[in-house]
């Protein structure tokens, strides 16, 4: 599972990094991505959730906040072909 660190970044920098790294994870055949946004005022968290909602190949993994290990991160599932299939396309 890949972790994307956008904590302590400005909104636009965080959005750009999130888009780039999710694209890279998709092309590498990753199935889950953890977005580490921190707690703060919730601006980066909301931006990450909104971005996931706009992408058809991403699914927000809902978990009960009582059992979540880190409230400063969001877990996202990438609904994509397998790593082997993507490697065949790259070749």
TrEMBL record:
Q: Name one Pfam family in it.
A: Smr
Q: What is this protein called?
A: DNA mismatch repair protein
Q: Which domain of life is it from?
A: Bacteria
**Residue intervals of the Smr domain:** 4-79
Q: Which organism is it from?
A: Leptospira yanagawae
**InterPro entries to which the protein is assigned, alphabetical:** Smr_dom, Smr_dom_sf
């Amino acid at each position: 599972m890949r972790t994307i660190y956008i904590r302590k970044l400005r909104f636009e920098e965080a959005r750009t990094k999130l888009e780039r790294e999710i694209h890279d994870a998709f092309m590498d055949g990753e199935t889950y991505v953890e977005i580490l946004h921190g707690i703060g005022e919730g601006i980066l968290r909301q931006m990450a959730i909104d971005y996931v909602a706009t992408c058809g190949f991403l699914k927000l993994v809902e978990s009960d906040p009582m059992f979540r290990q880190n409230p400063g991160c969001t877990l996202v599932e990438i609904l994509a072909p397998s790593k082997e299939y993507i490697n065949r396309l790259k070749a």
